[in-house]
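Sequence, structure tokens reproduced for absentees:
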Amino acid sequence: MTLTCGVIHFPRPQFVPATAVAGIIWASYAFLIGRLGGKVFEDKEWAGLLLALGLALVVSLIVELVRWLAGRRNTTENGNLMVPMIEIHARRDRTEDT
């Protein structure tokens, strides 16, 4: 995330507060999931591990399916994929320098 914000020249005054809020949200839900998981799976830790791994696998498969479908939808008439946004920004930066 930080690298991407640097590449696209994301303004620092917006980046710092957004990162702080994101960190607070991440810490809060990680803490709450840990507390809940600790209570629910107190006597059977392996079940919690299997549930976590299963959920991670399902979420990953859903994300990849959405990416695959989006890639199919974003093809041009000749079958080439559209140019990624980062390349468009890089081209724009090169033309502005000249």
Summary: Residues 43-98 form one domain. The longest helix spans residues 12-40. Helices lie at 2-7, 12-40, 45-73, 85-97.
